[in-house]
Amino acid sequence: MGDRGNFKKNLRKDAREDIKLTTSSSTDLHCSFHGALPPLLGWNSPEIWRDRDDIQPCRAILDEDLTKTEPTAAIIDGKMIAEKIRQEVTEEVTRLKSQTGGKVPGLAVVLVGSRKDSETYVRSKKKACKEVGIASFGEDLPESSSEEDVLAVVRKFNEDPSVHGILIQLPLPKHMNEEKVLAAVSVEKDVDGFHPLNIGKLAMQGRTPLFVPCTPKGCIELLLRSNVDIKGKHAVVIGRSNVVGTPAAMLLQRHQATVTVVHSYTPNPAEVTRRADIVIAAVGVAHLVGGDWIKPGAVVIDVGINPIEDPSAKKGYRLVGDVCFKEACMKASAITPVPGGVGPMTIAMLLSNTLDSAKRAYGLIN
Ligand SMILES: Nc1nc(=O)c2c([nH]1)NC[C@@H]1CN(c3ccc(C(=O)N[C@@H](CCC(=O)O)C(=O)O)cc3)C=[N+]21
Questions:
Q1: pLDDT tier at 30 (50, 70, 90 boundaries)?
Q2: Residues near ligand 1 (Cβ within 6 A)
Q3: CA distance linking residue 228 with residue 225, whole number of Å
Q4: Fewest 10 Å CB contacts: which of 9, 109, 251, 326?
Q5: Domain count along the chain
Q6: Domain with 280 in it: what CATH number?
Q7: Is there a catalytic annotation at residue 331?
Q8: Which PANTHER family is this protein grouped with (predicted)?
């Protein structure tokens, strides 16, 4: 272990920052014999996309007059497709009710703290439940609550037979261990698909997770329902979060795509992304992906929902994706807008996961 000191000394400054941010989970358990090498599981490095000199700002923001040429892309209407799925769920809920003598699916939403965006999302999730006949249960805890308080709520819902799905609204306050809280949700009620057992099964061939995370599932549904062929295609996923990028890459592989994951340490992400037939952008940086990142004819799924200042908007801001829509429209064969793309699908998938869970609880599916 003596070599570790020398290793640190020789690191570039940014890499040294990474070490500071490395959590206790990367103990040297896995690499005690590596000496000067990095730990087997890698450093837990932060994703920093800003201040990179190999990424140019998206031109259409600066050049409003770009749209002299006609856009080529078909718009993938996530709002309409999500509406269709919600109708399907509504019908299924009615059927479940008649088959079980009046039982309905139930979703419990746990919100900790008072982030405005989280409150908005939770409200729209509950509203969506109501519209399709799913009962919703809520528990709003103050920011100051302890991890044990949240765990107690999770246990209560785990045991409640009228609750078939439990959703812990993310992000949790910083003082809570997200890993521990998410693992406390019963696998059978993990409608977000974040339980390690469900993620693990998603990653393994021949295994079937009980639930697939809503946003990546929504992306794949958009592709399937728009008749986009995935098999044998090159898909580039930009971003590697637990919630979207990583499970999206796993799902695309299950659909026989060749998958490349582009992240904040990827040199020349534009060049790599330009090789993609299918692009899923899930980074959280407004307009990161310019038109020059897109191969002509590619299909683009934009997961980002980023507020940017807009004095002409009522609230003073508007929502834009990770993709520069105006530019990408000139290159792509099909593209999802923001809003009205992946966002509504996320909620539709949550409803469909909750329905599946209830069907399973009443022995109607495996
Ligand atoms: N445990 C957990 N599960 C989640 O699924 C989860 C979460 N935590 N934390 C926050 C994110 C975000 N999220 C969205 C859901 C719907 C829209 C949505 O419907 N957006 C619309 C409207 C946007 C607007 O105008 O406000 C659209 O894109 O068209 C967006 C974002 C779910 N999340």
A1: low
A2: 121, 167-170, 192, 214, 305, 319, 338-340, 343-344, 346-347
A3: 8
A4: 9
A5: 1
A6: 3.40.50.720
A7: no
A8: C-1-TETRAHYDROFOLATE SYNTHASE, CYTOPLASMIC (PTHR48099:SF5), C-1-TETRAHYDROFOLATE SYNTHASE, CYTOPLASMIC-RELATED (PTHR48099)
